[in-house]
Design a protein that fits this description.
Structural class: mainly alpha
Strand order of the largest sheet: 1-2
Strand content: under 5%
Number of helices: 11
Helix content: over 70%
Order of helices and strands: HHEEHHHHHHHHH
Length: 271
């Protein structure tokens, strides 16, 4: 009996989530997110000895500002895109490489449901690793006395990171489903295209994910010290409503394009 699209997606999600959580990529992901945690430990250790980890114009940068910098410069601009590249482009490529794609496609389920189920497993898996690391960094860096006033910002940060993982993942799921050598294209997009056009004047930055994510950052990052300088560098930001619209719309559109690509592409398994 043939399953409906969402029932099939849920079955694939259940199967893929466990595989992702115990895969080598998850070890890589834990090592990547361990970097900011290690930095947070160093910041806390310096603070315990009465030293300041970061200064701007001779003024000590507060813990909330340090946390904001870590969120923007490490998590949003590096960790989230990198994880999305390595996971998103591999959603179908791994099945081709392991020669298990035929097993999935011969089942009475829609082809597109395979990709959607694996995409949802990717989002869940990455959030289960990234978001707890962010919470740990927050409580290491932000002084206890500042927690009541900045906890809402932490919740905003977590939502922002989840949205970033979803939209980048949808983009690279499409790249992986449609193009050959998707990993190379994904890395070029993350480390070539986005950093370049983000610092150039003009409309090209509108074709990046970071352009819309940055409009949400001021709601999660304080505006003082080094954080203010970093935010001032990106002056042309869209409105909050426009950013949310385009990020959500981009996630839906690219995920739809990815499912269409999977349904129509002929996959050739190497012997």
């Amino acid at each position: 009996m043939s399953l409906g699209f969402w029932s099939a997606s849920r079955r694939v999600f259940d199967l893929s989530l466990g595989e992702m959580l115990w895969s080598r990529r998850t070890i890589f992901m834990a090592l990547v997110v361990g970097g900011p945690v290690l930095l947070a430990v160093i910041v806390r250790a310096l603070d315990m000895f009465g030293l300041t980890a970061l200064r701007v114009n001779g003024q000590a940068v507060g813990g909330t500002s340090v946390f904001g910098v870590l969120i923007w410069m490490l998590f949003l601009r590096f960790i989230v895109p990198v994880l999305a590249v390595f996971y998103g482009t591999a959603l179908m490529a791994d099945e081709v490489e392991d020669k298990t794609l035929t097993y999935l496609f011969t089942r009475p389920i829609p082809r597109g449901a395979v990709l959607v189920g694996k995409y949802l497993a990717y989002v869940t898996c990455t959030m289960l690793v990234v978001l707890p690391a962010v919470v740990l960094v927050y409580f290491l860096v932000v002084p206890f006395r500042a927690v009541p006033g900045s906890f809402t910002s932490l919740v905003t940060d977590l939502g922002l990171l989840g949205l970033g993982l979803a939209v980048y993942g949808a983009v690279f799921a499409f790249v992986g489903a449609y193009f050959k050598r998707p990993l190379v294209l994904g890395l070029v997009f993350v480390f070539g295209w986005e950093p370049t056009v983000m610092v150039l004047p003009g409309y090209l930055k509108q074709f990046t994910v970071a352009h819309y994510l940055q409009a949400l950052v001021p709601h999660a990052m304080p505006s003082d010290g080094l954080t203010g300088l970093l935010q001032g560098f990106f002056k042309e930001t869209p409105s909050l409503g426009a950013s949310l619209f385009w990020l959500i719309a981009g996630t839906v559109v690219f995920l739809w394009l990815a499912t269409r690509a999977v349904e129509h592409r002929e996959y050739v398994l190497e012997q």
